[in-house]
Amino acid sequence: MKSVLSGTMDLKTDLATEINSPRRYQLLRRKIVSLMALVTILPLLSLAGINYYEHQNTMASEIQAPLRALVGKAKHSFELFLAERTSAVSFIASAYTFDELSSDTNLQRIFQVMRREFTGFVDLGLIDTAGNQISYAGPYDLKDRNYTSQDWFHQVQFKGTYVSDVFLGFRKFPHVVIAVRHTTESGQSWILRATLDTMHFDRIIAAMGLEPGSDAFLLNRGGILQTESRRYGKVLGMLPFALPPTNFESNVQALRDDQNREIFLASAFIANTDFALAAIKPRPTVFSTWYTVRADLLFIFVSGVIVIFLAVYRLTSALINRLQHSDEQRMGAIHQMEHSQKLSSIGRLAAGVAHEINNPLAIINEKAGLMRDIMDLRPEFPDKDKFSRQIDSILRSVDRCRGITHRMLGFAKRMDVKIETLDLNSVLEETLGFLEREAQYRNVEIRRNLVPDMPSIPTDHGQIQQVFLNILNNALAAVPDGGRITLTTWDVDENFVGVSIEDNGCGMSEETAKNMFEPFFTTKKEKGTGLGMSITYGIVKRLGGELKVQSKLNEGTTMTILLPKKSTEGQA
Ligand code: ADP
Ligand code: MG
Residue 466 Cα, ligand 2 centroid: separation in angstroms? Predict the structure, then answer.
């Protein structure tokens, strides 16, 4: 019994701490929700991430491939254009002798043919190895010039052919120089130098068919623009950011320009020159299609996440609520069980005591009766009246003791309950009769608030009296001198009648209110037994009623009893 009790006690305290802390359920709910959300949203998130990444990559390569091809083609056009011009100059240099070329009229004639066959030539000049301009055909007066101090002269001596950077000529128009050195078998060598305007460069770039926002231009190795750029400046301006590593194969890189725009840049060197061709596409226009796709995807993703989250939350909440509810029910059941266990052990104890006392009481009763009989048989018995009174007193006391043991047995359910139809108002008045003297003495006001046509109910007179007595006793003990006790009865509904006993006494702390129905729980030290309320509770329950307590420390207590209008003894 003891171990069972302590077992349920442990369980009870465990449950009590759980039920007393709604935080635990909150925590549990939060844990489950976040775990489930994580488990469902994480794959979705990674799927979306991979999708995004893949899409980005495909889009990038879809952009990069055409850009690369575009630059490749334009590079080829530039190379072809320059190679043709270089070959033409080279052909003239080797097809004629130095003497033939030295004559201005000859050179003029050759130049005319050349201009007819090839666009872009501006002038043509013959220079000897000492750097002297021997003859010249063209719009400028360059005769008798010496070029030994100029860089291009040394380069062409060294390399055989040379294409210069773009420069603004006398006509303030961008030009390039093509120079070719020719050496005969006899070892004589000369240099033929032609100037080209770069209009054709612009034509090649225009032929690339760039979209608005895109850009393409030629650069030299120093980063100086050789053609005009839509965005980064005019001819001979400096490109405002460094060209990424470039080689002769056209390749694409993603980077940020000086204005921090994200761009794709394709670039390639032009063979036999110092030029690099670059084409640029800004990234946002590149990805505009992806942005619209992404908005749809984002919407689906976000609403999916919301739906999942809501579902998870609703489900978890329902689950947790069920859990909390069943925990509370279990707690209540355990509480009830524990209480009835205590009550029944008290009941057994009381029954045992009552039973033990009943035997000596019977003997006392019998012996006292016998004494009276003996006395009656002897007419000469001295002080007969005196003795008779004493014996009567003994018999009355025995009777009272019997009443008490009878009630104790009743508490232990061993006694038959005698059900009568009773008017609770009058039982209450009757019980009050026992206490009225003390109340008067202590100047305690008793207020009656009794419903006049209170329906009579079937119940046990002795037991209901004990219930009232116990509660009134406590109320009287709780109020100070001059306090107030209010008795109320009312017809609750078709099933119950109600009696409440209210006092404006010391009231109870929460702790006391929780324990007041426990057997032997008392706050009155030696003066209290702690049995009143546990017995009362047992009786009310057995009669099929309800006992409720409302109490506030230092303000007062209201005990409410609800009793059934129909006897439930059969069920109980
Ligand atoms: P006892 O009266 O012998 O102490 P009870 O079982 O009748 O035992 O009551 C248990 C405890 O409940 C009391 O000790 C008291 O602390 C508290 N109690 C009961 N009724 C009242 C009341 N009306 N006002 C204040 N406290 C009360
Ligand atoms: Mg009491």
Answer: 11
Direct distance between the N- and C-terminal alpha carbons of the chain, in angstroms, rounded to an integer: 24
pLDDT confidence tier of residue 559, bands split at 50, 70 and 90: very high
What is the CA(5)–ligand 1 centre distance, in A? 24
Superfamily per CATH, domain 40-293: PAS domain (3.30.450.20)
Q: Do the domains 416-564 and 40-293 match in fold?
A: no
The atom number, within ligand 1, closest to the CA of 522 reads: 14
pLDDT in the model for residue 525: 84
Task: Give domain limits for the chain.
Answer: 2-37+294-409, 40-293, 416-564
Rounded to two decimals, the pTM is 0.47
502 CA distance to ligand 2 middle (Å): 15
478 close to ligand 1 (CB < 6 Angstrom) = yes
pLDDT of residue 10: 47
CB 524 less than 6 A from any atom of ligand 1: yes
Stretch 365-383: mean pLDDT, rounded? 88
Residue environment code for 519-558, b if the CB has 16+ CB neighbours within 10 A, otherwise e = bebbeeeeeeeebbbbbbbbbbbbbbbebebebeeeebbb
Is the predicted pLDDT of residue 9 greater than 60, yes or no?
Answer: no
pLDDT in tens, 327-347: 888 888 887 777 766 666 776
pLDDT at residue 441 in the model: 92
The ligand 1 atom at the shortest distance from the C-alpha of residue 521 is 10
Q: How far, in Å, CA of 513 to CA of 537, rounded?
A: 13
Side-chain-side CA neighbours of 152 within 13 Å: the count stands at 23
**Averaged confidence pLDDT in the chain:** 85
Residue minimizing CA distance to atom 21 of ligand 1? 474
State the closest ligand 1 atom to the C-alpha of 531, by its place in the atom list counted from 1: 6
Helix (H) or strand (E) holding 86: helix 22-95
Maximum distance among all Cα pairs of the chain, rounded to whole angstroms: 195
Topology (CATH level 3) of domain 416-564:
Heat Shock Protein 90 (3.30.565)
Residue with tokens 């019977």: 362
pLDDT band for position 5 (cuts 50, 70, 90): very low
Q: Identify the pLDDT of residue 287.
A: 55
Q: Is 508 in the pocket of ligand 1 (CB under 6 A)?
A: yes
- In this prediction, residues 258-270 reach a mean pLDDT of 88
Strands of 484-491's sheet, edge to edge? 445-450, 484-491, 496-503, 556-564, 546-552
Cα dihedral angle (214, 215, 216, 217), rounded to 10 degrees? Answer: 180
